[in-house]
Every structure is written in C-alpha cells, then in structure tokens.
Amino acid sequence: MVVRLRYGFRLYPTPGQQTALAQAFGCARVVFNDAVRARNAAFEASEKAPKAAELSKRLITDAKKNSERSWLGSVSAVVLQQSLRDAELAFKNFFDSISGKRTGRWMGAPRFKTRRDRRQSIRFTANARWSITSGGKLRLPKIGDVPVKWSRGLPSKPSSVTVIKDPAGRYFSSFVIDTNPDPIETDAPDVGIDLGLKHFAVLSDGTKITAPKFLRKAEKKLKRAQRSLSRKEKGSKNRDKARLTLARAHAGVADARREFHHQLSTCLIRENQAIAVENLAVSGLTRTRLAKSVHDAGWSGFVAMLEYKAALYGRRVVRIGRFEPTSQVCSNCGVKDGPKPLHVRVWQCQVCGVWLDRDINAAVNVAKAAGLVVTACGANVRPPTPVGADRGEAGTHRGDLTSATARAARHGRNHRGSPR
Fold it and tell me: pTM score, two decimals?
C-alpha cells in the first residue's frame, strides 16, 4: 500500500520573485473565474457543460492571442491548466454532493475568487519542469530559484509542488510524496481516547492531557489587534499593516495548535497498537455556545493526523459512532444507568458499587465499543468516603479561627496563604 503525504517547507522569495508569484496567483485566479463563468453561462442557456479540452483552448490558448488576456503568457502554462482542473473538480464535488455520491459535508457551488482572498496558491506538476537545485533552492519556471528552509529531507521524488501564500504574508511549498508504510515493530497495547474541552484527551489507562487552549490564552492580544484594525481607514497603508499584524497573531495560534497536535498524535501512534476515538459531530458543536472552545480544541485536525500516521506506521485507528452511550455505561459491569449532568464528574455504580471517573470511564467504553482489548487500570477511582473526626479530636474548630484565617479557608487556602 502506498501512502500519499504532503511535506511543507517555508519559502523566502526575493522581492522580484514575490512580484512574479503575485502575477502567477492573479493569472490562476482569472482562469479559474473564467472557467466558472463559462460553466454558469452554459447552465443558464440550458446547454451542455463545456469539456476541459474546450475550456483549455478557449480560456488559455486563444485568450493569450487576445490583447485583453495577452498577459497570461507571462506565467507557466501548467499553472493555468491546474487552475482549470481545480474549477472542474469544484463542480464535480458540488454535483456529487447534491446527488449523494459524495459523503461528508455538503459542498456548495463554486464561487468566484477575488484578489482580496488572503490565501493564494498555484500548483506545478512534473510537466512544468520544476526542480530542486544542487544548492537546495526550488527552481520554478518563470519565477526563478526560490530559497527554501529545509527542516528535513524528502523520502522520495515529489510528483508536484504547490506554492502557497498565507494571510500572514508567509510563503510555503507543499510537496506531494508517495511513500510506502514503515511499520513500527513493537508490542504496544490498545487504547481508547475520550476527547474533551477541559482535558483535551483522556486515555483509557487513566492519563489525562490538559487542553492547552491556545486561542483563549491569546484572546487579549487578538482583541487588541482587531481593535487596532477597526480604527484604521479602509484602503490605507496603515490598515494593511494592522491587518498583517492581526493575521500573524492568528497564524501563531494556529501554528502552536498544529504543533501540539503533531507531538501528541506521534506519541500516541508510537506507544499504542490500536487507537479508538469517537466520531464527534464537530460541525454541530460549532453552532452551540461552546463554539469557540470547540474550534480552539481542533478535534478534527487531531483525528486526521492520527489516521494518516497510523497508516504510515502500521497502526490502526477505529472510529465509533457518535451515539454510543460511553458516559452512561459502567465500564466495570456494563450496566447503563442513564445520562448525567456535565457537573457530575465522579459517581458510584448502583449495581457493582465501583466508583467511576466520568472521562476515564468514557475512554474505556470507547475502546470496548471499538472491539479493542483494554489492559489499562480501568475507570475506577478511590471512593470519596471522608472519615469525620470527633469534635474532641479536631484540633481547631471553625469558631476558633481568626477572621483572616477564616477568609483564607473559605477561598481554599491554608493559614500561610498557599493553595491547599
């Protein structure tokens, strides 16, 4: 089995190369819009949709001979051809979505691109004769040798490269690599994962990973940057600078979240043979009052990383249905005792008498629903049975506390002011 991966690296084009890239982005956008316009015109006229070869001849070959589109010849023809393919794929996804052939979220009809789109991209295939020079630069046709920051080597020869400019003004190259899986020969256990907001992930072995909440921590900085942007006059250079500052702040949050997902997913894949997760309805949760926290967690991106890394290293990821009552079933005896409010984090099973932690119990049930063998400690917790002392044994009564100590006790602190 061949696994297709993408390797991304930072590009540092010179000012002249940035101008050439901007021209290439603009030409690809114009060809894409022309293709969408031609398809829409054929639909309104009740005509058959033009084929890709006809669009290529009309919108690229013949358009270059026209004075209004002669500047299309200043960029690589492969970039324009790939833009036509993107438009064709967008229409295919739309029709497959409305006919039920495409699973997942519903895809809308292709819309026109605008120069105000902050994310721009162009793609070069092997026909474009791009290459990597001996000095480690990326040679692109009609653009030049672009410096690349190589963080690692490529395992095989790439089939294509996509040049991307993100909203923060950074340039990246994305290489498509076909590679064979490299299984990890270890006797690893199985694990179930319960994804949440307070704890990003709770494992069936009792491990709890606290949610980093990158967006919440950077919220004040983002608000200041957004406020500064709203005060700037539209169309001014100061507004462009403020927009770039805000985009870089958001990019920092996204990069930190992505790095956290990569480190955690790699650790889980290396240490476990099979991983079970819930198929959460993320799109539905993003329409609730928890939308910001759900977006901050980024569950979908994390699970996607688990799946492709599992295929790469010979592991297995199993998704269970979102309607599995993982929080309602005792992981010890299997008795379902109904839903519980979110504030109930620990409870005692009325049948077997075992005390259960809500998140760990759910993680164990996720693993069991996926048919995995759970060799962990389970979801039991020590029963909260406090032993009351006689009044004569208690060293200090509430009435004997000083006012300062009493205030500290009410706030969960001892008499020295440190947290209990």
Answer: 0.83
